[in-house]
Each structure stands twice: as structure tokens, then as C-alpha cells.
Amino acid sequence: MKYFSFLLLTLFLLPLILYAAQSEYVFFILTQGYPYKQIGFSSRKHEEVCLKFGDKVRIEDEYVRGNITWFRCYREPYFFYLPEGFIVKKATGIHYDSHGNIKIGKEIVDKRNALPVLYRPNDLIPVPLRYSAEGYENRVLLLRKEAEEIFSRMIEDAEKDGVKIRILSAFRSAQYQSYLYYNSIKKRGVLQDSVAKPGHSEHQLGTTCDLTTDEINNVLSQDFENTCAYQWLKEHISYYGVSLSYPKYKERVTGYKYESWHYRYWGKARWEYYQRKYGLFLSR
Ligand SMILES: [Zn+2]
Predict the structure, then answer these.
(1) Which backbone phi and psi does 279 adopt, to 5 degrees?
(2) Which is more confident, 178 or 80?
(3) What's the 246 CA to ligand 1 centre distance in angstroms?
(4) Which of 133-142, 203-212, 275-284 has the lowest mean pLDDT?
């Protein structure tokens, strides 16, 4: 009897386990539903395959054609093919705190690692209007409470030194990111590298800001590096637990082009370290 059960297990369960291990879930990330024929080719009935942001699809196989990786996907009841640029892998190893947020500074998000595409921190608060870049007053900027306090404090402190820093962009949901991403694909093709893939942007964390200043008419520009605001940040950000995410000459490490305007807050542990070490933070 024991032998029979073992045989049953081997015959029926093992192939199932192996099959599950082979197939992998990903999420479709373009903004609207697209009949599959618009983005690739389908085995059959392609008009009926209409995907929308966040739809879960199962990966069955992958192969490279030219310099694009394609995935054979399955979503009840059809098989179809999607290029790699239109899907994002399921996030793994994510630990949430008791409030359902990922601990600040513990979020791994880069070209390889994605956040859950539907993740939105639940402690987002609006940034006071006076810290928004002029001309962008209609844009509601959201940051996680702790990050809002830090960026506000940093901007106030810079102002005391006669330097004006303003925020252009803060939290972005992965869904909003997908608009930016798709627009960039339309302009530059699927291999574009100017806009982060949805789920792979630090803006989704709610702890990251794009900064600007009057000196460059409050635009988002690489010229930010030539401003007093940039210089001030360079000298002071570490005391606030903030850092420049994509520094110059580090493209091979970060996977992103240099962005003089993009700053991420890494959590209290970092600035407390600097506070202990130098006794500078918040004591000005
Ligand atoms: Zn940015």
C-alpha cells in the first residue's frame, strides 16, 4: 500500500510540481487594454486577448528574437506572446511592516528588482505647496510622512543658507509610471532607457524626489548640477539620510543614466548615524 501511494505521488504530483516550478507569473504593465495583435503576434483569436495594467499572466517559455526577449504567456483561456518590455516580474522577498508598508530603506528597487506593481504606501501625505516648483502648483506632490518631514526640513535649512530648492516630482504609482514609460517607448522604441519600467521606479516608494531650483527656471534638467542648489545638496544630503540615486560615472552600477535631480531618502537609521557621528543634523 505504501509503495502504491509513493507511485501515485510520483506519477501524478511530481509532474504538477515540476510544471508549477517552470511557469512563472508576471504582470502586464501597459496602461490600457490592448488587443494582442498590436504588440506582437498571437497563436489564435488574438482580438480577444485584451490586457490591462496589473493583469497577471503566466510565463510558459521565453526566447530571443533580434535583441528583444519574448515570452510565451498564458492567461485564461489563451496563449499569446509579449516582449519583455511590457511585463514586470512578480516581486519577491518583500517584507511589510504592521501597517502594510515596506520599511523605509529596506526597499530593493532597481533594474532587476521590482516592487509589487500595485504597492502604494498608505502613509502618503501632501507636500506643502511652498516647496513645489513654481509653475507646478497644480501638481499634488505626495511623500511618505517621514520622507516629507525630511525633505521639508532640508529645503528649509537650505533656505536659511540662501539657497532655494524646490520639488518637481515625488510619489508616482506604478500605473502612472506606465504612462510615462509607454510614451517613452512610443518615442524611442521598446529598448528605451530614459524612463524606468513600472514597478522599477524609486518614485513608487514615496521617499524619492526630483529636485530643481529657480536658477534653472524650475525645470528638470541635467543643468541642475551647475547650480548652488546642487552644490548645497552635495555638501549636506548625507546628514538627512538622503542620497543621489544615479550619480555621474556610475551608470554601469546603477543601470541608469546620470540624474543630477533624483534624490532618495533612506530612513532614520542613516541620518541618525550621521547625527551621532557629527552631531550636525537638526541642530542648526
Ligand atoms: Zn526621478
Answers:
(1) 60, 30
(2) 178
(3) 9
(4) 275-284
CATH code for position 57: 2.30.30
pLDDT at 77 over 90: no
Burial of 105 (0-12, 13-18, 19+ CB in 10 A): middle
* Number of other CB atoms surrounding residue 273 within 10 Å: 14
Whole-number Å distance, alpha carbon 203 to ligand 1 midpoint, is: 6
Residues 134 and 221 occupy one common structural domain: yes
Number of domains in the chain: 2
What's the CA-to-centroid distance between 45 and ligand 1, angstroms?
Answer: 40
166, 129 contact by CB (below 8 A):
no
Tell how far the Cα of 165 is from the centroid of ligand 1, in angstroms: 15
156 and 69 belong to one structural domain: no
Domain boundary among the residues 70, 89, 108 is at: 89
Residue 127 pLDDT exceeds 80: yes
CB neighbours of 130 closer than 8 A, spacing ≥ 6?
none
pLDDT at 111 over 80: yes
* Cα 233 to ligand 1 centre (Å): 16
Same domain, 249 and 163: yes
Q: How far is the CA of 13 from the centre of ligand 1 (A)?
A: 47
Look at residues 194, 176, 109, 184 and name the one whose alpha carbon lies nearest to residue 139: 176
Distance 110 CA to ligand 1 centre (A): 13
Q: Is 104 helix (H, G, I), strand (E, B) or coil?
A: coil
Domain that holds residue 75: 2-89
All residues with CB under 5 Å from ion ligand 1:
210, 262
